[in-house]
Amino acid sequence: MYVSPFNQDVSEKIEALNEILVSLKSKINWSNHQEKLQLLTIAPSSWTTAKIAEELGVSVHAVKTARQLKYTAGILAVLPPKCPADSGGRRTRAASLRLRSQIVRL
Predict the structure, then answer these.
(1) Are 52 and 63 in contact (CB under 8 A)?
(2) Model confidence over 44-98: pLDDT tens digits?
(3) What is d(CA 45, CA 66) in angstroms, rounded to the nearest whole number?
(4) Are 30 and 50 a contacting pair, CB within 8 Å?
């Protein structure tokens, strides 16, 4: 059977893209949450949120977070670190309450 060079080229591209997709699925499967979000930023924009979640085995929430990350920082962007809780302020308040209770006792 004759296969035109154009069809052969398209077939090779499809095979290469499928190989990339399989590798991406595997990498996402073994990645931590931060790495998953980073990898999800390279998902095709033409795919729906549900399709990405289904194809790559992640939550819809992760896909939405990755899309927002892609919009704000581009592909393969890293999520900025969370600000630590202001535990110092809580300690100060607790110390202040202890001091007040000591003053009241005097």
Answers:
(1) yes
(2) 999 999 999 999 999 999 999 999 999 999 999 988 877 665 555 555 667 666 6
(3) 11
(4) no
DSSP secondary structure letter of residue 78: P
**Angstrom distance (rounded) from CA 97 to CA 104:** 11
Q: How many CB atoms lie within 10 A of CB 79?
A: 14
The number of angstroms, rounded, from the C-alpha of 19 to the middle of its chain's C-alpha atoms is: 22
**Structure pTM?**
0.69
Which residue is listed with tokens 């892609």? 70
Render pLDDT for 12-38 as a digit per residue (tens, 0 to 9). Answer: 999 999 999 999 999 999 999 999 999
Instruction: Take residue 106 and report the two structure tokens written for it.
Output: 């005097």
Residue 54 identity: E
